[in-house]
Amino acid sequence: MVTSPLGRLSVFRLLFVLLFPALLLPTGVSTAAGGLPLTAPEAMVIDGWTGNVLYARNANVERDPASTVKIMTALVVLVRHIPLNRVVTISYYAATYPGSSAGLYAGERITLRNLLYAMLLPSGNDAAIAVAEAVAGSPAGFSRLMNAEARRLHLWHTRYLTPNGFDEWGQVTTAHDLAELARAAMSRPMFARVVRTRNWTATSVEGRIVHTWTNTNQLLWRSGAVDGVKTGTTPGAGACLVASARRGGKWVISVNLGSSGAARFADGMALLDYGFQQESAAPSTR
User: Fold this and answer.
1) How far apart are CA 195 and CA 220, in angstroms?
2) Residues in the chain with pLDDT < 50?
3) How far apart are CA 123 and CA 129, in angstroms?
4) Which pLDDT value is given to residue 191?
5) Residue 35: its pLDDT value, please?
């Protein structure tokens, strides 16, 4: 059988149409169900109202949690009903703690409420350490409270060793556990109020020190539907994001772990959009 040049040209055009979109994907991007492009090796989307699973990719693989740990740090404060007007004196240890910082000063006196903003918006490690010292006397003591709350929430693949999220051997979580944690935390009005805040100005109790903090979650500026929750980045964890959004009566929570730095927020937005397109059908399983 002889194929005419016109026939061969049609075949080439068909192959080009089918293959060209794949050629446009950057290196490291894989395609998930429904044509969902992600750089994240682990991801999860759940219905925020029911907990039903809408999408999962390696969702029970344990990995470093980075600053997503601070979701639990804040939740422990709220579930224990610690007065948020409690005044905390910032220790030298907290003020000089390395990594991301809220710019707190040793000896500064500031309310626990403002420390939640300092911890969840600019992801201040100094604030997380200050919270742990104020509530439990030490980061190690506070970590025990975090693990107790994780067990209460049935986060069986999560273990905490720090209140801030530095890479520590044995400190792990999963995309599934983070989605469940975010759902629990977002049910707390104070937590939800903090994580949807784009910018916050706080003053020390004496009024001498003023801080202005900006939320690291860039999705708050990209979509009016987004209302939280937390970023995280360490060498072991990569670029991570836990996100929440509400649209037309639907509430979706997404998690992407180990994304590339450049694609973290694109991954998160793609997961949220995918979740809004799904029916809440699959039951949440652990």
Assistant:
1) 9
2) 1-34, 281-286
3) 11
4) 98
5) 61
- For the chain, list the domains and their CATH numbers: 27-277 (3.40.710.10)
250 noted as active-site residue:
no
Q: pTM of the prediction?
A: 0.87
Active-site position among 70, 91, 204, 244: 70
Q: Which tokens belong to 70?
A: 């601070």
- Pairing state of beta strands 36-38 and 42-47? unpaired
Which tokens sit at 130? 């200050």
Cα R_g (the chain), whole angstroms: 21
Are 48 and 252 in contact, with CB atoms under 8 Å apart?
yes
Q: How far apart are CA 67 and CA 119, in angstroms?
A: 9
User: Which candidate in 4, 10, 30, 67 is catalytic?
Assistant: 67
Contact residues for 275 (Cβ-Cβ < 8 A; gap 6+): 45, 46, 47, 54, 55, 250, 252, 253, 254
Q: CA nearest 244: which of 194, 171, 172, 173?
A: 194
Residue pLDDT, tens place only, 148-179: 999 999 999 999 999 999 999 999 999 999 99
From 91, 123, 259, 280, active-site residue = 123
User: What pLDDT is recorded for position 201?
Assistant: 98
Q: Is 143 a catalytic residue?
A: no
123 counts as catalytic: yes
